[in-house]
């Protein structure tokens, strides 16, 4: 699967043509219950279903996926893209909770290589997260070039020094979590070889969107990707320092370094952990 290609096709989509195959429709009414913009109408149970104002369609696919007889003909969602869900293969609640218990911000990255197939699964998981009105404007960009990662780290260090200098000039050097001493300390540690910025990760995922709900959409995508990474035995860490520098620094510069054009909403560090936590603490 190639999520980026699917996304590009969606952003350039045309208005859907939607019809009901009356020969196969069993008039169960499921499509009328799941459609967010309510374009399927049924006067009462077991009566014919009609399509009302198809231009409202957001291409979510709920109708096609719920129809038991493949009776909905949707021009933007052909049935060759529809796949059967095997509910017998779902993780049990206990297995899912075990995964959630194990998921931590494990910063003990090694220099072992992450397989491309793992990156693909992590990114695909992110693209399956919901977005507001199915806008699908979240883009997930993978960075794994060492020079590019070094540029990201240098950007954060330079921005933090600028922020610290500005705090001192405005006489608020000791205010807040990100105070001048903390920012300068992070840069000093990174300069001396302790990577306090990227934590020595081997790759970064950048979640971007210009949609009004972009930050929420990207956070949902981030969580999906994070859980898939955990399932694959890959450690993931939310790079708050990078986002703080982006918020307070030259945003266009970081976007150019990362090769993105939309607003950066979340950044994830990825790497193979040196060890796994053997316990979890109740919350």
Q: Helical amount among residues, as a percent range?
A: 25-40%
What structural class do the secondary elements suggest? alpha+beta
The main sheet comes to: 4 strands, antiparallel
Major beta sheet, strand line-up: 5-6-8-7
Task: Please tally the helical runs, counting DSSP H or I stretches of 4 or more residues.
Answer: 10
Q: How far apart lie the N and C ends?
A: 37 Å
Q: How many E-type strands?
A: 8
Low-confidence stretches: 1-12
Residue fraction in strands: 5-15%
Radius of gyration: 23 Å
The mean pLDDT is 93
Keywords: Flavoprotein, FMN, Iron, Iron-sulfur, Metal-binding, Oxidoreductase
Cofactor: FMN
InterPro entries: 4Fe4S_Fe-S-bd, 4Fe4S_Fe_S_CS, Nitroreductase, Nitroreductase-like
Pfam families: Fer4_10 (PF13237), Nitroreductase (PF00881)
Structural features:
4-stranded antiparallel sheet, single chain, FMN, 283 residues, oxidoreductase, 4Fe-4S ferredoxin-type domain-containing protein, Nitroreductase-like, flavoprotein
What does this structure look like?
It comes from Segatella bryantii (Prevotella bryantii). Pfam families: Fer4_10, Nitroreductase. The strands form three sheets. Strands 5-6-8-7 form a four-stranded antiparallel beta sheet, sandwiched between helices. A hairpin with an 8-residue loop joins strand 2 (40-41) and strand 3. The protein has helices spanning 3-11, 30-34, 62-66, 93-102, 116-127, 146-169, 180-191, 214-231, 240-248, 251-258, and strands spanning 18-20, 40-41, 50-51, 72-74, 139-143, 203-208, 235-238, 264-271. Helix 5 packs across helix 8 (214-231), helix 6 runs antiparallel to helix 7 and helix 6 crosses helix 9 (240-248). The protein has 283 residues and is α+β, with helices and mostly antiparallel strands. The protein is built from ten helices and eight strands. The chain is 40% helix and 12% strand.
């Amino acid at each position: 699967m190639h999520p980026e290609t699917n996304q590009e096709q969606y952003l350039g989509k045309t208005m859907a043509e939607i019809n009901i195959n009356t020969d196969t429709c069993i008039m169960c009414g499921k499509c009328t219950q799941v459609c967010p913009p309510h374009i399927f109408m049924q006067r009462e149970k077991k009566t014919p279903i009609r399509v009302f104002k198809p231009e409202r369609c957001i291409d979510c696919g709920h109708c096609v996926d719920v129809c038991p007889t493949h009776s909905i003909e949707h021009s933007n969602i052909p049935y060759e893209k529809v796949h059967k869900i095997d509910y017998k293969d779902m993780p049990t609640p206990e297995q899912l909770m075990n995964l959630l218990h194990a998921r931590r911000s494990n910063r003990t990255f090694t220099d072992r290589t992450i397989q491309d197939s793992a990156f693909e699964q992590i990114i695909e998981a992110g693209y399956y997260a919901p977005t507001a009105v199915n806008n699908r404007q979240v883009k997930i960009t993978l960075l794994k070039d060492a020079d590019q990662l070094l540029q990201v780290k240098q950007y954060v260090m330079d921005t933090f020094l600028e922020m610290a200098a500005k705090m001192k000039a405005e006489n608020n050097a000791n205010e807040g979590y990100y105070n001048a001493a903390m920012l300068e300390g992070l840069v000093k540690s990174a300069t001396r070889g302790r990577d306090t910025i990227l934590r020595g990760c081997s790759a970064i995922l950048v979640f971007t969107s210009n949609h009004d709900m972009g930050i929420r959409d990207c956070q949902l995508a981030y969580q999906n990707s994070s859980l898939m990474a955990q399932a694959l035995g890959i450690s993931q860490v939310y790079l708050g320092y990078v986002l703080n520098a982006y918020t307070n620094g030259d945003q266009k510069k970081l976007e150019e370094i990362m090769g993105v054009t939309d607003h950066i909403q979340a950044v994830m560090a990825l790497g193979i952990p040196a060890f796994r936590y053997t316990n979890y603490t109740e919350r």
